[in-house]
Amino acid sequence: MSPWIANRWWDFLKLIVFPTVSTLFSLRFSGGQHVPRTGPVLFLCNHQSFLDPVLVSLAIPRYARFLHRQTLQKKKWLTWLMASLRGIPIDHLGFSREGFQAMLDALEHGDCVAMFPEGERTHDGPLGEFKPGIALLIKRAHTPIVPVGITGAYDAWPRDSKLPRLAPRFMPPMAGTIAVSIGKAIQPSRYAKSSREEMLVDLRRAVLEQMDRAESLRRKRREAL
Predict the structure, then answer these.
(1) Strand ranges for the chain from DSSP E
(2) Which pLDDT belongs to residue 70?
(3) Where are the domains of the chain?
(4) 7, 85 in Cβ contact below 8 A?
(5) Which one-letter DSSP state was computed for residue 151?
(6) I want to staple 211 with a disulfide (CB 3.0 to 4.6 A). Which of 38, 149, 169, 177 is the partner?
(7) What distance in Å separates the CA atoms of residue 168 and residue 23, rounded to the nearest whole number?
(8) Could you tell me which residues come within 8 angstroms of residue 112 by beta carbon, excluding any fewer than 6 positions away?
(9) DSSP string covering 6-46, please?
(10) Whether residue 223 has pLDDT greater than 60
(11) Which residues contact 10 (CB under 8 A, 6 or more apart)?
């Protein structure tokens, strides 16, 4: 599918999905003004649930190509959907050489690439450690990095649940209300003299900061306020 057609498909899906997700999960987001309007961008997002790619897509004002594991091939409809949106498949054990090169090619072409540096959905809610492969990608790509924080998605749809727990906007606030916060772009020159470990710690801190901001955006149960 050509990029133009994929983008029109993206526009159509966003038009349909936004009111649905916004209503069913009381979705709130902020920080879209921080996303560079042109040029390549690497989005780093925490991974709380199956909903995360949808949530990030709704929150950012640009088209993004998401990394996804090749194991999704077991679900043909999901494989087709990711391909139609120009998703980038990676090896289920980490970055394959082909997947790594595909990410570099996308960024060099001026695309936005969104990834979950934890490598998998959280098992218990908190942000996990980042996979080391992200450091090499940043060193090679020389691309602005935008941290994204998601909160509430784990409560709405944890990985051990078959169905999501709705938190409709027209109902009193529930645990599954969701918010997304987008931070200011980090220039890659910031890590020119950093070790891999220093870079990973700083990037994880940036995502944690956005998670805290997202938490403050959520519609919360009155007894929790």
Answers:
(1) 28-30, 41-45, 64-69, 88-90, 112-115, 145-151, 179-182
(2) 65
(3) 3-18+30-66+93-220
(4) no
(5) E
(6) 149
(7) 6
(8) 40, 41, 42, 43, 60, 62, 63, 64, 65
(9) HHHHHHHHHHHHHHHHHHHHT-EEE-GGGS-SSS-EEEEE-
(10) no
(11) 57, 63, 85
The helix (H) or strand (E) run that includes residue 107 is: helix 97-108
**161, amino acid identity:** S
Do 18 and 117 touch, CB atoms closer than 8 A? no
Structure confidence at residue 42 (pLDDT): 98
What is the spatial distance between Cα 181 and Cα 34, in angstroms, rounded to a whole number?
10
Distances (CA, A) of 108 to 40, 67, 74, 82, 118: 7, 16, 30, 21, 24
Full strand arrangement of the beta sheet holding 88-90 = 28-30, 179-182, 145-151, 41-45, 112-115, 64-69, 88-90
pTM higher than 0.90 for the full model?
Answer: yes
Residues 185 and 6 sit within 8 Å (Cβ to Cβ): no
Pairing of strands 179-182, 145-151: antiparallel
Name the phi and psi angles at 223, rounded to 5.
-70, -15
Q: What are residue 82's phi and psi, to 5 degrees?
A: -65, -40
Q: Are 53 and 14 in contact (CB under 8 A)?
A: no
Mean pLDDT of 32-49: 97
Q: Are 165 and 157 in contact (CB under 8 A)?
A: yes
Q: How far is CA 33 from CA 41, 45, 49, 68, 146, in A?
A: 14, 17, 25, 26, 11
